[in-house]
Amino acid sequence: DMPYEAQQLMEALKDPAKAGIDPKADIYMFVNMMPGMGRYSSPNVEVGVLAKVSNKGDFEKFVTGISVDDPAKVVEGEGYSRVMFPSEASDVPALIFNDDAILMVFSPDSNSGSLAKAQALLAQKHENSLMANKDLAAHIEGGNDGIMVVNMSGMSAMGAQVTAMIPNWNYMKEMAVALTTNFEKGKITGGAY
């Protein structure tokens, strides 16, 4: 017998629309790597997932109804709703949503760091996003099977010794690179912009 929580999650996977998530829209995942402390330490990794809301009420019912023993609560914020998990520890990702989007962010520093990052991302205007670059946006929206966008400023934090040797790095670190993957009849093709 599957636990109730697992049943709810399996139902959402079968039909995301019942959980208030638009199954026809792309789901975006982003990863931000930051240098760790110390010379040989592992990098800190910040992860986020962004999905489109099809029905805010259905999503709220889904997320608060997953656990009957220890239900989550929804708290209203400024321009968003936040899911508060009952036993919220410092390493729980921030989960916020509004009428348009669901955003989950896990930041290695703390839950408050995750929440601050999620709030800033959800409040971000189009002109401040990567999609404001029309050429990059056209490349990203080009019907690719997989897309990875790398912000070069994150690379400089990871490899300061390497990037210090690259001439004109100060100009390059403002760049973003979009890498695309497509699966076509048994072969994988890729491109970069």
Describe the structure in your own words.
This protein has 193 residues and is an alpha+beta fold. Helices cover 29% and strands 28% of the residues. The protein is built from seven helices and nine strands. The strands form two sheets. Strands 1-2-6-5-4-3 form a six-stranded antiparallel beta sheet, sandwiched between helices. A three-stranded antiparallel beta sheet has the order 7-8-9. Strand 8 (176-184) and strand 9 form a beta hairpin. The longest helix is centred in the middle third of the chain and has 13 residues, at 111-123. The N and C termini lie far apart (49 Å). The model has no long low-confidence stretch (mean pLDDT 76).
Helix fraction by DSSP (H/I, runs of at least 4): 25-40%
Q: What's the average pLDDT?
A: 76
Largest sheet: 6 strands, antiparallel
Question: Which strand order do you get reading across the main beta sheet?
Answer: 1-2-6-5-4-3
Order of helices and strands: HEEHEEEEHHEHHHEE
Number of helices: 7
Judging from the principal axes of the Cα atoms, what is the shape? globular
**What's the count of strands?**
9
Radius of gyration, Cα only, in angstroms? 19 Å
**Secondary-structure content class:** alpha+beta
Distance between the termini: 49 Å
**Which range does the strand content fall in?**
25-35%
Low-confidence stretches: none
Oligomer: single chain
